[in-house]
Design brief:
By secondary structure, the protein is mainly α. 76% of the residues lie in helices and 0% in strands. It contains four helices and no strands.
Length: 134
């Protein structure tokens, strides 16, 4: 898989997270909160689609990284965030930027889990790098 495949997987992880919730109000969570009642079946169908996508992506990330890998990714990204705060690049009192930064950090962790098995296969040359699910 080339770099374009990693880019596509990363963008889809970000789209999934930002489509579910974001601070702008154009998301599934904001749409679900509207009281129009006429599109309840569409809201349920979109919710089930998002749930299925989350189940697939989180399962792929969990199988690829497991708990130590996820904790390592979160620790590295959070320490980078704290370094940016310490340097004054990110204002700690700005809730909008903190929300976006939390979404970006979650997207990077999810994208690293989705791309990890392909990256490991490319480096090691193995055809199978994941163990079968329990």
């Amino acid at each position: 898989m080339k770099s374009f495949g990693y880019l596509i997987r990363t963008v889809t992880c970000f789209l999934l997270l930002f489509a579910t919730w974001n601070p702008t109000g154009y998301s599934y969570a904001a749409w679900l909160g509207t009281e129009d009642g006429s599109r309840l079946s569409v809201k349920i169908a979109v919710g089930l689609l998002l749930l299925a996508l989350y189940a697939a992506y989180l399962r792929i990330a969990w199988v690829a990284l497991r708990l130590p890998g996820i904790l390592t990714a979160v620790t590295i990204l959070y320490s980078g965030y704290l370094s940016l705060r310490h340097l004054g690049v990110v204002d700690a009192d700005a809730p909008l930027w903190s929300s976006y930064l939390a979404l970006v950090l979650a997207g990077l962790v999810l994208a690293s889990g989705v791309c990890w098995s392909h990256f490991k296969r490319r480096i090691s040359g193995q055809s199978h790098v994941l163990t079968p699910p329990p």
